[in-house]
From TrEMBL:
<dbReference type="InterPro" id="IPR001173">
    <property type="entry name" value="Glyco_trans_2-like"/>
</dbReference>
<protein>
    <submittedName>
        <fullName>Glycosyltransferase family 2 protein</fullName>
    </submittedName>
</protein>
<dbReference type="InterPro" id="IPR029044">
    <property type="entry name" value="Nucleotide-diphossugar_trans"/>
</dbReference>
<dbReference type="InterPro" id="IPR050256">
    <property type="entry name" value="Glycosyltransferase_2"/>
</dbReference>
<feature type="domain" description="Glycosyltransferase 2-like">
    <location>
        <begin position="8"/>
        <end position="169"/>
    </location>
</feature>
<dbReference type="Pfam" id="PF00535">
    <property type="entry name" value="Glycos_transf_2"/>
</dbReference>
Amino acid sequence: MIEGKRVCVVMPAYNAAATLEQTCSELPRDVVDRVVLVDDQSADETVAVAQRLGLHTFLHRKNRGYGGNQKTCYAEALRGGEDIVIMVHPDYQYSPKLVTAMASLIAVGEFDVVLGSRILGVGARRGGMPLYKYISNRFLTAFENLLVGYKLSEYHTGYRAFSREVLETLPLLENSDDFVFDNQMLVQIIRRGFRIGEVTCPTKYFPEASSINFRRSCTYGFGVLAASVGGWLDRMGFWTPRFLRRDGRRLSELGPAEMERDEISSI
């Protein structure tokens, strides 16, 4: 808890057994009230490690993709009643120690969303981000800033903190179940007028850290362009894509049967 606000960390997990314990060991337990892990049909011992660590753990009955995993993460966090929800990847690519700083910026009312940016400062390349990913990150971010009329250092970080209001308001069920979910969500946040803050975040690239291959990176890139164009069309008043419509489906409309997950441990 921080400033009287309860904090939930959510972890969308896929084959994270090798790094999960180290990630959890660096979470600031004086601030974090609950940790929710959603396993997306991992082929390793992720679930067993999560149970041993006492995490509030859910298992998808079939692989639903990165975006689908996040939908379950946020839905379960909201069911728990916490005020601030922070997504921490269990692959130890981002420093869990920044949870306190990110939660604080929301708890004191300065921002509704806080992003851990790999681009602010000099952390990305020093941390081992491949050059092609760095260049594509900078290009896509510049394109997105231009089209959606905002200014962020990057749109592609997986380290994110949200107020409860943000997760209750956005039509997240209209977003993709794939990696472009992250970008669609940021466009939704910007178009709804929520306040976004950024903190510089060191990052690490190593074999166990999650990464998508070049082919899927290209698919993601085209999805990012489509989301940005959709944001521009909505901003200009020409047309509003489904994921930006005010009547889009929210997490509160996600029934237990649709979630296709099993609660396998709880604290």
